[in-house]
C-alpha cells in the first residue's frame, strides 16, 4: 500500500523498544487539514505527555489517515489514546471535525528497527 508521512514529533529518539499505538481514521478531510488540526490542538500535549517517544501521521493510498505513536510503556500508550479521545471530544474542536469518526485502534509492543543500520553479528562471525 502506498502513502505518505506528514506531521512528525520526536520527543525521544533514543529508544530500542516500547509500546506502539496505531489509530486508523476514515475521514473526508484532507491530510493537510488533519495535520494542521493536530498541530494546533494536540502538538503541545503530544510533546509533554509522560512516556511519549514519537508521533507520526500517515496518509494511506486509499485515503485513510493514521497516527502512529511510540511510547515507553503500555500505560503511556493508553494515556495517549485517552488524551486523543479527550482532545477530539472537546466542544468546538477542529480535531472533532476532521476526525469525526472513531478510529480503529491497534496496540502492541514494538522494537526499533532503523533501515540501513549495521546488523550486530555474533563474536564468532
The CATH architecture designation is: 2-Layer Sandwich
| Span between termini | 37 Å
Q: What does the main sheet amount to?
A: 5 strands, antiparallel
Indicate the overall shape.
globular
Q: Hey, roughly how much beta strand do the residues contain? A: 25-35%
Radius of gyration over C-alpha positions, nearest whole angstrom: 16 Å
Number of helices: 3
CATH class: Alpha Beta
Q: Which stretches are low in confidence, meaning pLDDT under 50 for 5 or more residues running? A: 115-122
How would you spell out the order of helices and strands? EEHEEHHE
- The total strand number stands at 5
User: What number is the mean pLDDT?
Assistant: 85
**Class from helix and strand fractions:** alpha+beta
Strands in their spatial order, largest beta sheet: 1-3-4-2-5
Walk me through what this model shows.
The protein is of the alpha+beta class. It has one domain (3-111): Alpha-Beta Plaits (2-Layer Sandwich). Helix content is 30%, strand content 33%. It has a five-stranded antiparallel beta sheet with strand order 1-3-4-2-5. A hairpin with a 4-residue loop joins strand 3 (52-60) and strand 4. Helix 1 (31-48) crosses helix 2.
Could you give a quick summary of the protein structure above?
With 125 residues, the chain is an alpha+beta fold. It has helices at residues 31-48, 74-88, 94-98; strands at residues 3-10, 17-25, 52-60, 65-71, 104-111.
Helices and strands in order:
Layout: E1 3-10, E2 17-25, H1 31-48, E3 52-60, E4 65-71, H2 74-88, H3 94-98, E5 104-111
Antiparallel strand pairs: 1-3, 2-4, 2-5, 3-4
Helix pairs in contact: 1-2
Amino acid at each position: 500500500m502506498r502513502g505518505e508521512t506528514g506531521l512528525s514529533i520526536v520527543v525521544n529518539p533514543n529508544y530500542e523498544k516500547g509500546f506502539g499505538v496505531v489509530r486508523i481514521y476514515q475521514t473526508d478531510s484532507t491530510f493537510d487539514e488533519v495535520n494542521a488540526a493536530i498541530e494546533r490542538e494536540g502538538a503541545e500535549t503530544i510533546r509533554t505527555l509522560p512516556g511519549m517517544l514519537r508521533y507520526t501521521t500517515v496518509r494511506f493510498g486509499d485515503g485513510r489517515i493514521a497516527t502512529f505513536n511510540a511510547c515507553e510503556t503500555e500505560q503511556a500508550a493508553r494515556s495517549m489514546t485517552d488524551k486523543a479521545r479527550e482532545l477530539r471530544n472537546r466542544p468546538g474542536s477542529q480535531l472533532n471535525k476532521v476526525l469525526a469518526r472513531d478510529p480503529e485502534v491497534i496496540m502492541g509492543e514494538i522494537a526499533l528497527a532503523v533501515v540501513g543500520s549495521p546488523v550486530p553479528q555474533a563474536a564468532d562471525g
